[in-house]
Every structure is written in structure tokens, then in C-alpha cells.
């Protein structure tokens, strides 16, 4: 194995092993150790839908500059079991340096032999192999023995003091191996470290959505666990006491969505998080939200379907479903954040939009986005706050009073002297059942009139690159990071990227900006180019090219670069 | 007799002679005798003829989806425990379409009253079998007669250790009112299954049929004995009426949830700024 490599900007580290072997623990500790040391981190994972066994891997991009995409390239690989190398065979190249235990992986394997199992056994048990790997990697990134000892003491040691000694022993052994392969002519990691980065917070998409919900005043969560959205529920449950958030695991997604509607009706700010299958069960409640004009905020984390599909993989295949789910006609808002920071901001905004427009708001993400960790710049929470639109009712209050913009002042029971009536049947201004044709017509017009103001307030798409573009790569949601970085790498002054963080209603400027391109292409993680269809239908623009990926994995940086080069090469 | 919960000029969509009328009257009388303020009362219902009842009572209401009265009712009470919440629908709505919610709401034990109009037939869809239809009941859909075991809500509720389980008969307005008063006053989930005739679509389970097949529990009956209650729930010949089971006192859903552990103020009225706490949380994640 050729160890002579110098890394100045960016290292891709991959840990791979069976579910239950402790990869998640190493990942968590390593990203923290490296971030605290001032390296930028972008970590993604792919895992199987099982509790034990199989092959799961985590990729850490450790870099001098902030990065936000997943790469095919593997620079340093730590396979923890014999299945790992086979699992990653398409990504391992001559450039990949593998650190492994020949006694586990086989004597013929070409790798740097690190006797993890022997180190672990000497320390006191198989579990310490993970700490040895941690010590090895921290050492390779240039951290000193004392840094490693301090880190292990303050993390593992503070949680389980009785395991401190064996953990320290294993970490030190790992560090010794790192020292033996580091230096001129061997592995040299010379990444810049930033004091600013060390003070930043590492969050994944799920935590970002959870933080946004808290900032947006969410005080009621009802959900049924479902990958990839369970992390949002657990994050909010963990913080339920601190923030007074009523958190309940519902018996099914039908109950979850109907509870959230009951909560909003009573004056709380309800939230549900789910994936496509659960969202399917919520479709009737979505329609109810539209009819009773009661707000609802739904986080929909996509994964490949139909049906159970690939439960732990990623896709953007539920876009049209999110847009059209629910019987009947009613307006809705669909947001699709492109970064963790944007997820905080847009999730908070979702609660305010739902409250103001009295409609469902869907935050559309995916497994890749929800599970990806990155260090984010400091967030100013004083800039985002819960803006409430509840009125005190008076005698004769009419819940569905007609108004010019379609929005009727929303009262809640027990606040004022009026009665608050919500009815899923067509209703009159007072909320009572009616079959009067004129009222039906007026009520339909009133509900749909809200689209006008929603459109006025829509998030504009963001342009990355020069406004003087000829080639335009269009994307939405989680593909922001990879296309931004790919475009930077392609470095063609005539190429720009246009990212949409609001899918519906579309910002009115979408048509003009896409229309300016000589050539446009849409990047999407689905089979049929769903966003391209939406652009055609609602913005009236044909984007022409489509780059579609639907194998369960996100676009890698290399794939995006290759596609952008192909796209810009055509005259 | 005039009542706080009366509404003027309403067009009631029930058939003449419907069992819903005495239930409607009994409920308004019970609420009035309990001195409940209409402005503090939220009626939650699903869909069906019984589920239209909120439109005929002076109160707030949430007339939601078929089968889905209990989840929003639970949420309304949890969001603002100072309100009185009644979830009221038919047996098709509550035990059929909403069966899963029925089970889990009992487990959750919110302080709400669940009134179920049980006429053993689907009225609004014009005469199909309901979960409680008796074996042999013929309908345009069940052309050879119902063969499924009828759903026994009382037995299910007792098996789940529901905090309050009662059964009433719409033919006896006074006793129905008394049972409803106990249910509404009870702290915790209270089920009142009310047997009622459907004059349009059920020619078998008539007023007379129910009258002959029901009896009131006597004053010596002890509703705290769960095994006795279960025996009552599965008696084959006649339906016992009255309070069949009351569990030992237990905390309600609202009392159990973390959000109310330290602060009793309804979450809808808490106006604490979160900026500092969020900064604190973010720091802890560093």
C-alpha cells in the first residue's frame, strides 16, 4: 500500500462495518474531535434497514474550507468487518489508503495492518476497537497525544468513568500507529485549521429542522416513528421539557396529523414529521386542514418508494405527491431547504406562514439531507420569532368571515366571547354545514384566493454564480450543496446554479430567470423529473435537459461535476 | 325548558323519531345542570348523523373527519386543559373507521368524555351493517346477513382499564342525562355508549327491542371491580345500563406529558421568548 500522499485541502474518510459495531459512536466522536480542532466537517451516512449486521458506512469530508457534498472518492478507509471492502469495492481506488486488521479482513488484503482486535483485547474487550480507530484517525489529522487523551476523558470518560482507562489505552495505541505512518514521504495531512470553526455547532438536517420548529414556536408534536424523520421527533422530545413542547407518539400517522390539527385549532402550534408512507396516511388530514383553514406544519423526509421502497436510502420522489396529496382543491405551501442553516430558518418560517395563511405547510427534505452533519455558522435566533395571528373573539364571531385576501381572523376556543366553529363539510361563514351553491362557490373562491398572497411572499430562488450566465443548472432541496460545489469546481463563467427552496407556490421571478438561459438543465433525485414538470406547468418554462438519479444514493460531487461538464460542453 | 346550550333557528337534519333527539336533550340538560359555560365547552365529532350534534348545541366545535374525533379531541384538551371537551359520534365512526384511535385514546386517558350513539346500523349511508350490528342482520350489502362477531365496546374498554365506562339507552332520557353528568364530571377518559334505535334503517333493533334487552345495574353494583365489570360487559342476553366500570384514579394524559410537568399554564397561553433558551441549547450542542 502506497502511503505517500499529501492532503492540503480536503480528506474523505470512510468508516464501514456492520450495524451494531459502533460506527455511529466513532463517527459522533470523530466529527466532534475534528470540528473542535478547527476542521470543517461534512458527514453523510448510508445504512441498511436492519438493526444488526449488513454493511453501513459513514463518510467524513474533513476540509480547510466548508464543503457540502458527498464524494465518491475515499482517501482513508477503515473497514471494521470483512464485508466492508466488498461493499465499497466500486469506490476504492489505488489512491485509497486502507487501515484494517488482517486477522479480521484476511492476510491477502492490501492494507495498512492495524491489529484493532488485539489492541481491543489488550485494553479489555472487543468494543475498544472503535476507540483505537478514533485514536488512529485523530493522530493522522495531526492531533497530539494530549489532545486525544483530553478528548477521550471529556467525552467517553465523563459518561462512563469506569471505561476511561481501557478507552485511553486503546486510543493511545491507535495514536501510535498513526505516528508510524505519518510524516514526509508518508501520509501528510496539512489542512488549515480555523479557530472560528472550532467554536461552531455541528448539526444534522434533523436537528436543524427541530431547531427551526422550536424557533418557530412549535409547542405540540405528534408523530409516528418513520425513517428518516424519527431524528426530528427524538430531538424535539429531548427538548420538550426545556421548551414546553407537548410531544406524543401517536398510534398512527392519521392520529398524528389529526392531533396536530386539534392542537392548532385550540391555539397551539402543532407539528408532524414523517416520510412518504406516513404522509400518504395524512392525506385526508391535509385536505381537512385546507377545508377548515386550520394551520398544519408537516416535515416530509423523502426516501425511495413506491410503498416501503428503500427505507434507509434517499430520493426526491415525493415532490408531486406533496403538491397534489389530499382530495379537493386547497392551497398549500411547500418549502425545500438546501442547507442546515436554511432548514432552521425555513422551518421556523413554516409555522408563521401556516398561522398567517391558515393552510398546510410542508417542509420537504430527504434521508441524505436529514442525516448529513455539517458545522454551521452562528445562528442569530433573535431574528426569527413566532409571529402569531390569533385574534380575541367577540359575540357573533364568524370563523370563516369573507375577506378580500381570503384570510378570516382566526379565533380559538376560550379566548374571547365568540364561538369558534370548524367544519369539514362545506360551511357558511359561521362554520355551519351548508349546501347552498352560492356559498359553496364563494367559499371555494375564498380558500383559493389565499394563493395570491402566498405567491407574493414566496421565497425567491437563489442564484449561485454570475447573473451573466448562458448555462443554468436548476435544482431544489438537498441538491444545493453538491451543485454549488460542483459548479465551483467546473469554474465556467457562463455557468450558474439556480436553487429553489420554495417549490410551491413558485416565486413569480422563476420564469424570467430560467428564460434567460441559453440552456437549462434540472438535477433531481427522481425518475421522471418532477420539478421540471412543475416548472413547466406553473412557471411556463421548459428546461430541456434533465439529470436524474434514482438508485437510492445522492448525487456525488464527481457525478455532478461530470454532468455539468457535459452540459456546458454542448454548444 | 330553555337551556344555556339551545340554539335558535337551527334546521336539524335527523329523521323524525330519531334516537338522537333524546340524547341531544339529555346532553344539554346534563351540561346545564353541571353549570358548564358554553364558552368553555368544545364539542368534537367525526362524520355521520350523530356527528352533526355539535351544530345543534351552543358551544365551540371541531366537526372533523370520519373516524377521527378522538385525536383532535385529545389534542384540544392537551393544548388547553382549562376547556371541557366532548367527543361525540356514532358507533361506525368511533368503533369502525376510528377503532385504532378508540383503543389508544383509552390507553392515553385524556380528560375527555366520549359519547357514542350506537344504533347498530349505518344511517347516513343508508342502512349498511355497523361494527355493532348483530349476527344475522340483513342489509343491501350484507345480503346473507351479518356473520361477524359484534364489536363490544364496553368489554374492550374494560379490558384496557378505561377510567370510566358506562352504557345508556336513548329511550330513557332522565337516566341518560344522569349517566352523562357522571361521565362529564369524571376526571379522565369517560366512555358512554348509548344504545339508540334508528327508525329509518334498523327495523330489528327498535325502541322496543332495546327496552326488552336492557336493564339498569342495581345500587349494590360495584363499578370498581374489574372482573365483575367484564362479566357485565359480556352478558349474552341483556345489556346492563349505568356506570359499568371505573378504574382506580389515574393521571390523565395532560398530567402525564412532559410539557406540563413543571408548568400548569396551558401551552396555548405560554408566551415565553425562546431566544435565550435556544442559544443555550445551541451551546450545549457545540
Describe the model.
- The complex is a heterodimer of chains A (571) and B (286).
- Chain A has 571 residues and is α/β, with parallel strands linked by helices.
- Chain A has four domains: 5-199, 3-Layer(aba) Sandwich (Pyruvate-ferredoxin Oxidoreductase, domain 3); 203-383, Rossmann fold (3-Layer(aba) Sandwich); 390-457, no CATH class; 462-569, Rossmann fold.
- In chain A, 39% of the residues lie in helices and 20% in strands.
- In chain A, the strands form four sheets. Chain A has an eight-stranded mixed β-sheet. A seven-stranded mixed β-sheet of chain A has the order 11-10-12-13-15-14-21, with helices on both faces. In chain A, strands 18-20-19-22-23 form a five-stranded mixed β-sheet, with helices on both faces.
- Chain A is globular, with a radius of gyration of 26 Å.
- Chain A starts with a strand and ends with a helix.
- Chain B has 286 residues and is an alpha/beta fold.
- Chain B has one domain (20-284): Rossmann fold (3-Layer(aba) Sandwich), CATH 3.40.50.
- Chain B is 31% helix and 16% strand.
- Chain B contains ten helices and eight strands.
- Chain B has helices at 20-33, 70-79, 91-97, 99-108, 153-159, 173-185, 207-212, 226-233, 253-256, 275-284; strands at 41-45, 60-63, 84-90, 113-118, 164-169, 190-195, 214-216, 239-246.
- Chain B has an eight-stranded mixed β-sheet, with helices on both faces.
- In chain B, strand 5, helix 6 (173-185) and strand 6 form a beta-alpha-beta unit.
- In chain B, helix 1 (20-33) crosses helix 6 (173-185) and helix 5 (153-159) packs antiparallel against helix 8.
- The longest helix of chain B has 14 residues, at 20-33.
- The chains are: A alpha/beta (571), B alpha/beta (286).
- At the A-B interface, strand 9, helix 9, helix 11, strand 11 and helix 12 of A face strand 2, helix 2, helix 4 and helix 10 of B.
- Strand 17 (421-423) of chain A pairs parallel with strand 2 of chain B, so a sheet runs across the interface.
Amino acid at each position: 500500500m502506497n502511503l505517500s500522499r499529501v492532503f492540503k485541502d480536503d480528506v474523505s474518510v470512510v468508516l464501514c462495518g456492520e450495524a451494531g459495531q459502533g460506527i455511529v459512536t466513532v463517527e459522533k466522536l470523530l466529527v466532534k474531535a475534528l470540528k473542535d480542532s478547527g476542521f470543517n466537517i461534512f458527514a453523510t451516512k448510508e445504512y441498511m434497514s436492519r438493526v444488526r449486521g449488513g454493511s453501513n458506512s459513514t463518510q467524513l469530508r474533513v476540509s480547510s474550507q466548508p464543503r457540502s457534498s458527498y464524494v465518491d472518492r475515499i482517501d482513508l478507509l477503515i473497514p471494521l468487518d470483512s464485508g466492508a471492502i466488498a461493499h465499497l469495492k466500486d469506490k476504492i481506488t489505488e489512491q485509497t489508503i486502507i487501515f484494517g486488521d488482517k486477522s479480521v479482513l484476511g492476510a491477502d488484503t492490501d492494507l495498512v495492518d492495524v491489529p484493532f482486535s488485539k489492541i481491543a483485547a489488550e485494553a479489555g474487550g472487543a468494543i475498544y476497537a472503535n476507540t483505537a480507530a478514533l485514536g488512529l484517525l485523530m493522530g493522522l489529522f495531526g492531533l497530539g497525544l494530549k489532545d486525544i487523551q483530553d478528548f477521550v476523558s471529556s467525552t467517553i470518560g465523563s459518561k462512563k468513568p469506569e471505561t476511561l482507562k481501557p478507552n485511553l489505552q486503546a486510543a493511545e495505541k491507535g495514536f501510535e500507529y498513526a505516528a508510524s505512518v505519518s510524516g514526509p514521504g508518508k501520509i501528510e495531512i496539512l489542512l488549515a485549521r480555523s479557530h472560528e470553526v472550532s467554536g461552531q455547532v455541528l448539526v444534522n438536517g434533523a436537528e436543524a429542522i427541530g431547531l427551526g420548529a422550536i424557533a418557530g414556536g412549535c409547542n405540540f408534536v405528534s408523530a409516528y416513528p418513520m425513517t428518516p424523520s424519527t431524528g426530528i421527533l427524538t430531538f424535539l422530545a429531548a427538548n420538550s421539557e426545556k421548551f414546553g413542547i407537548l410531544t406524543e407518539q401517536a398510534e398512527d400517522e392519521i392520529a398524528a396529523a389529526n392531533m396536530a390539527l386539534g392542537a392548532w385549532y385550540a391555539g397551539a402550534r402543532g407539528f408532524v414529521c414523517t416520510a412518504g408512507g406516513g404522509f400518504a396516511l395524512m392525506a385526508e388530514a391535509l385536505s381537512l386542514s385546507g377545508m377548515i383553514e386550520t394551520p398544519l406544519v408537516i416535515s416530509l423526509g423523502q426516501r425511495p418508494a413506491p410503498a416501503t421502497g428503500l427505507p434507509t436510502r434517499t430520493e426526491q420522489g415525493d415532490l408531486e405527491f406533496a403538491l397534489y396529496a389530499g382530495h379537493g382543491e386547497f392551497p398549500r405551501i411547500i418549502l425545500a431547504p438546501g442547507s442546515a442553516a436554511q432548514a432552521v430558518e425555513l422551518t421556523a418560517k413554516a409555522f408563521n406562514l401556516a398561522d398567517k395563511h391558515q393552510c398546510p405547510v410542508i417542509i420537504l427534505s430527504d434521508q441524505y439531507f436529514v442525516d448529513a452533519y455539517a458545522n454551521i455558522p452562528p445562528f442569530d435566533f433573535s431574528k426569527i420569532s413566532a409571529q402569531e395571528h390569533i385574534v380575541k373573539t367577540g359575540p357573533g364571531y364568524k370563523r370563516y368571515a369573507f375577506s378580500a385576501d381570503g384570510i378570516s381572523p382566526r379565533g380559538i376556543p376560550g379566548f374571547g366571547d365568540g364561538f369558534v366553529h370548524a367544519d369539514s363539510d362545506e360551511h357558511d361563514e359561521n362554520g355551519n354545514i351548508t349546501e347552498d351553491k352560492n356559498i359553496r362557490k364563494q367559499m371555494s373562491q375564498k380558500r383559493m384566493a389565499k394563493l395570491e398572497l402566498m405567491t407574493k411572499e414566496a421565497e425567491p430562488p437563489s442564484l449561485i454564480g454570475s447573473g451573466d450566465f448562458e448555462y443554468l443548472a436548476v435544482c431544489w432541496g438537498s441538491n444545493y450543496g453538491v451543485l454549488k460545489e460542483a459548479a465551483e469546481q467546473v469554474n465556467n463563467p457562463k455557468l450558474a446554479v439556480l436553487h429553489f427552496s420554495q417549490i410551491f407556490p413558485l416565486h413569480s421571478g422563476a420564469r424570467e430567470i430560467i428564460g434567460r438561459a441559453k440552456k437549462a438543465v434540472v438535477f433531481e433525485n427522481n425518475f421522471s423529473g418532477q420539478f421540471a414538470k412543475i416548472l413547466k406547468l406553473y412557471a411556463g418554462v421548459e428546461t430541456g435537459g434533465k439529470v436524474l438519479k434514482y438508485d437510492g444514493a445522492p448525487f456525488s460531487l464527481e457525478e455532478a461535476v461530470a454532468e455539468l461538464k457535459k452540459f456546458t460542453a454542448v454548444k | 325548558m330553555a337551556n344555556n346550550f339551545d340554539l335558535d333557528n337551527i334546521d336539524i337534519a335527523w329523521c323524525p323519531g330519531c334516537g338522537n333527539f333524546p340524547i341531544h336533550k339529555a346532553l344539554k340538560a346534563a351540561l346545564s345542570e353541571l353549570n358548564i359555560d358554553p364558552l368553555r365547552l368544545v364539542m368534537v365529532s367525526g362524520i355521520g348523523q350523530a356527528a352533526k350534534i355539535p351544530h345543534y348545541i351552543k358551544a365551540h366545535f371541531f366537526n372533523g373527519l370520519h373516524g377521527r374525533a378522538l385525536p383532535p379531541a385529545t389534542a384540544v384538551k392537551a393544548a388547553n386543559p382549562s376547556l371541557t371537551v366532548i367527543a361525540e359520534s356514532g358507533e361506525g365512526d368511533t368503533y369502525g373507521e376510528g377503532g385504532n384511535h378508540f383503543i389508544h385514546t383509552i390507553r392515553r386517558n385524556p380528560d375527555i368524555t366520549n359519547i357514542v350513539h350506537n344504533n347498530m346500523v349505518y344511517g347516513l349511508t343508508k342502512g349498511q351493517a355497523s361494527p355493532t350490528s348483530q349476527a344475522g342482520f340483513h342489509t343491501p350489502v350484507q345480503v346473507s346477513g351479518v356473520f361477524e362477531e359484534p364489536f363490544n365496546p364496553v368489554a374492550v374498554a374494560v379490558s384496557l382499564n378505561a377510567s370510566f365506562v358506562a352504557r345508556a339507552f336513548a329511550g330513557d332520557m332522565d337516566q341518560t342525562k344522569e349517566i352523562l353528568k357522571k361521565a362529564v364530571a369524571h376526571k379522565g377518559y369517560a366512555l358512554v355508549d348509548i344504545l339508540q334505535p334508528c327508525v329509518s334503517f334498523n327495523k330489528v333493533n327498535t325502541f322496543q327491542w332495546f327496552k326488552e334487552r336492557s336493564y339498569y345495574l342495581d345500587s349494590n353494583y360495584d363499578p370498581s371491580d374489574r372482573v365483575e365489570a367484564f362479566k357485565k360487559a359480556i352478558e349474552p342476553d341483556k345489556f346492563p345500563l349505568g356506570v359499568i366500570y371505573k378504574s382506580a384514579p389515574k393521571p390523565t394524559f395532560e398530567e402525564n406529558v412532559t410539557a406540563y410537568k413543571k408548568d400548569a399554564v396551558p401551552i396555548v397561553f405560554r408566551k415565553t421568548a425562546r431566544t435565550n433558551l435556544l442559544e443555550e441549547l445551541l451551546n450545549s450542542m457545540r
